[in-house]
Amino acid sequence: MQDPASNEPMDFNLGSLVLSLESNKQDIRELKPGAPIEREMEGGQSHAYQIALAAGQYMHVVVDQRGIDVVVIVFGPDGQQLIEMDSPNGTQGPEEVSVIAEISGYYLLEVRALDQEAVARHYEVRIEELREPVPQDKIRITAEKAFAEGQRLRIQGTAESLRRTIEKYEEAVPLWRAVGDQRGEAHTLSNIGLVYNWLGEPQTALDYLSQALQLRRTMKDHHGEAATLNNIGMAYWLMGELQKALDYYSQALPLGRVAGNRFGEATTLYNIGSSYASLGECHKALDFFDQALRVSQVVKGRIEEACALTGIGRVYDAVGEPQRALDCYNQALPLRRAVGDHYGEAKILHYIGVIYDDLGEKQKALNYLGQALRLRRIVGDRWGEAQTLHSIGRLYASLNKEQKALEYYEQALSLWQAVGNRIGEAETLHGIARVERSLGKLTEARAQVETALDLIESVRTKIISQDLRASFFATNRTHYEFYIDLLMQLHQRHPWDGFDAAALQASERARARSLLETLTEAHADIRQGVDSVLLERERTLQQQLNARAQRHKYLAADEPTIESAAKDELEVLLTEYQEVQAQIRAGSPRYAALTQPQPLIVTEIQQQVLDENTLLLEYALGEERSYLWAVTPTSIASFELPKRAEIDAAARRVYDLLAARNKRVKFETLEEKQARVARADAEYPEAAAALSQMVLGPVAWQLGKKRLLIVSEGALQYVPFGALPVPNGDAAKGRHGDAATERRGDTVTQGRRQQERLATLPFHHVAASSNPYVATSPCPRVDFVPLVAKHEIMSLPSASVLAVLRQELAERPPATEAVAVLADPVFDSEDPRVTVTSLMGKDPIGRSSASGSKRTPMTRTVDSSRISDFQTSSPVGWHGQPNLSTAQEWAEYMPLSGMSRDYFAEQLRTLSPLHPLTPDLERSVRESGLADDKPSIPRLPFTREEAEGIMAHLSQGRGLKALDFSANRAMVTDAKLNQYRIVHFATHGLLNSQHPELSGIVLSLVDEQGQPQDGFLRAHEIYNLNLSADLVVLSGCRTGLGKEVKGEGLVGLTRGFMYAGAARVVVSLWDVHDAATAKLMKRFYQGMLADGLRPAAALRAAQVAMWRERRWEAPYYWAGFQLQGEWR
After folding, report:
1. For residue 154, what are the CA distances in angstroms to 84, 97, 151, 368?
2. 15-133: which CATH number, 3.10.129.10, 2.60.120.380, 3.40.50.720, 3.30.930.10?
3. What is the pTM for the complete model shown?
């Protein structure tokens, strides 16, 4: 054996490598054992190292990638390539090669940047072993060569080459095991799983990936573990198990960050975004896609950037912004092509084709989809092929080419079934059902869609997080809408076969399912038996969600960078909190033992929900037509209504007219506002009558004087039915569910007659007023009779929810005390009620305690620096504004002005400086419309009068009155509140439509010394209350609103209180008038406490009494509050 260190010349033919190195002006360095070399490299560069080896000597070299993806090639002394290694581990981790020298000489090792445009990053190269060979070394080299050949085949990217790739990897696995190389074994197993994912065989992929994960964890290889977790997540995503996919991606993200793998971090962020997008959580998806884009652009990762742009495009498409989606796809497409990524290129071509299909450019769509289909077949992407086949089928169906559509759908269906993706299978079955319906094959269509619904339900039940379960269901609710419509069409053909009852049952299955399930688990104590570490983590996250406000308290929340950081922190905390709650459910023995509640069938609704004096009206709005069911204990009638778009437009019109007093118009004068409100009042009767006739006219003959339980959806959820006029019943009188189409025609005709008649009758006139600043109240049209005048009206998320609510409350012992009222909290240290002011002789509302002394106004008048703010935020502009400078003057003016409770309070806010709010509370304030400038929480003076009026109906000691500083979080979370049958909150309710769990109730934000304290009771904390209340009243603005989730309804505070134990909740639909609300609540409680009326009857009596008073007769003043829950 020749000594490699001798001075004997050794032959070495550099060949093309020398030319390559010369062109890059790189020197060839010598690499020696024990002397690792770290260097920086950028795209387009290659580095060469010569290593002296004697014949028969074994060498093992490791190149540790530290931010740059490299390929390692070894050449012999004769210039022949011996091995090329490029593991699919991206920019992090080792590339390892082994050689047994056949001849003595200098061997050349080339390290080359894989990406021509990679930014400069480091790597380290070292000789790990240089010694005499042992028998196992030859096995290792054989394994490396098999692996390297697999890599070469993988890069070709065809279905055939990928199959051969797996064969080569399979050859390597037992060889790695033979030499005890766990790293090589884990790497190869993970790669096999990855390729099976690409080929659309995720279940097979999981077999290999689970083995790889165990090895990675044994070796404490965080980088490899993160990569494997990502691949496992991808497998579950391909199978449509979105919750599991999200769980694995969420595990991968922190591990990848610990390992410093920014490219892997970008990939994982994209994968998490994809999971949220598939679950219907577009906002969360966009947030993760944005993070992925930022990271990928920092590290110059073109594939990662293309992924992020594709994800952002998907979100824009989903929210109805196709042009912005196309812009993203057109940026991503050249990035995919530049790196030869046919897999990703096909995906983008597919999404572009889908957009053009939706835009009606069918030929253009077909061209893109055809390109996508060819590429997906070339690379063997069965999942993608099924997706594109489905989209082509949908395109042909839209062109009424039914047979062509069925051909593509059938191909897609068999591929979805082979891949094991139940969501894709359900989508395609739905497509087939639509085609069969268009061909008149209703029975066959029903069978297909029922199979699709079973698949959707099976996926839904595997999603543990209730939030994600609701959003997933909302995304897939079109299946139920189609099913309901199909059953009602069958009902038209066979009116006595019970299809209308089946459709109603389908409607119940399609709504408020998450609420139904949370109410079932409310008293199951699902945390019993759960890992204490997990429960402690939940408590910690709850504390962090609350405490983050304190951490950011003195930051300038209007600075974009700080606001962005606060938002990112909030997103992370909320996501982790939801994940922990899902883990608690998944690990809870009691949750596992719970029987999932099933929506009621018609006979159960009739027996468990209704009595002879109660009528259920349930609405299902559809794309082509809508339906109404009227159910009594002994009958069911069904009616066809106009399509969703028509009903929603009519409902929004009515809501806008009802809430016209709350609209804020820049620089609007008082006279202009009065004129605008007068027009709205004049237009309201006709708009309300049209909506009433549209949605109630068909059942007018059934209404009588019955109690009405309303289960609505869409924009109807925002309309107080009690403020609609009693419908004309001539059109539908005597008609049942046997001729829905005829009924619709009658209803529309009658509605037009009604509108024509109403157009000739003035609704009201504007009364004269001696005060130019007072908004006069309208006079009603003589024949306008609101529905509430004849009916008690209750709102329900679904009929099934009421049945579950009754079951949960049946065994609960009644509360022993009457009423607890929390009102007029202290929001600011400048409030006169703070101790310093009180010591100066002031009572809690700012008046001198000395007898006969003058009233003392709040601290400041409006100064000129606030004029511009006032103009932009007030509903009445500065011109023509009364010169009111004190709180007392505003208080005297407000009851006559038509101001909402929150707007009046905002004017009081301008009179005194307020301390800054925390970012999450500020966000809720902005969303609740309390302020357009620097947000703050204004006082509500009339809530004090409201509280006193309620307590006046109670004997001494029967109630709890918590005013001022006593109206705080500690009071609400105290177990003593469980003793009260009625709990009344007269304060601000704040809406956070982006994160309903951060909506809440504002209580005292400072203590007696004026020191800040957490006074915001958030929705997630409301869920943790333990109430025995028959009634909770939220006497604030828009407390009945929330995030609208399709199929769930408005997700807000109402659900939290029902979960906490409230049998019924009174909430508001708009910014309510402060003085009118105080008066309404006094009458409401008089009805309950003095007259012995049930809550529903008492609320009706109070609203009717207000309507009969000329001053308060406009529905704006009395119709905003509605009762949800138990009617008995």
Report:
1. 13, 18, 5, 26
2. 2.60.120.380
3. 0.77
